[in-house]
Amino acid sequence: GVQRILEAHANVKDLPLNDAKLQYIRAWQALPEYGIALFLVKHMGHKREELLGVAFNRIMRMEPNTGDHIKTWRYNTMKAWNVNWETRHMMIQFEEDNVVFSCLTADCKVVHEFIGGYIFLSMRTKDANQNLDDELFHKLTGGWV
């Protein structure tokens, strides 16, 4: 551990501060779990808890102790997602299967908002002058899909 820290420090000690920060950010962004929001969930019909990873283009079932990926679904295979507000369960319908779970570390509304927000962003163009479609954003993140 110490040796790796010393090696990493040797790589940046002579850099100007901003270059060192940029190198740190690039290394952080290169990590496999970068940009993944993790939620502890319990799937319907399962006794044990799992991690649900929500990224900009996919959702992952993950092993809580190791972070190993059990299953990955891409948003482009997703047909619908909604929350049962009475039972606080979230249902995501994919082409091949349905996933139903309760969220233990956040309100299921937060998971819904993450998914809706990422899908909204994926629909936007690179045009800087594009108007923000408030109605679509609220529809995708507000649970009315």
Describe the structure.
This protein is of the alpha+beta class. It has helices at 2-12, 17-29, 108-123, 134-141, and strands spanning 37-43, 50-54, 58-62, 69-74, 78-84, 89-94, 98-103. A seven-stranded antiparallel sheet has the order 4-3-2-1-7-6-5, covered by helices on one side. Helix 3 runs antiparallel to helix 4. The radius of gyration is 19 Å and the shape is flat. The N and C termini lie far apart (48 Å). The model has no long low-confidence stretch (mean pLDDT 86).
Main structural class: alpha+beta
- State the separation between the terminal residues, measured CA to CA: 48 Å
Give the biggest beta sheet: 7 strands, antiparallel
Number of strands: 7
Computed CA radius of gyration, to the nearest angstrom: 19 Å
Q: Roughly what percent helix?
A: 25-40%
β-strand amount: 25-35%
Secondary-structure element series: HHEEEEEEEHH
Q: Which features does this protein show?
A:
alpha+beta; flat; about 140 residues; 4 helices
Blueprint of the fold:
Blueprint (H helix, E strand, L loop, with lengths): L1 H11 L4 H13 L7 E7 L6 E5 L3 E5 L6 E6 L3 E7 L4 E6 L3 E6 L4 H16 L10 H8 L4
Antiparallel strand pairs: 1-2, 1-7, 2-3, 3-4, 5-6, 6-7
Helix pairs in contact: 3-4
Explain briefly what this protein structure is.
It holds the Pfam family FERM_M. The protein has 145 residues and is an alpha+beta fold.
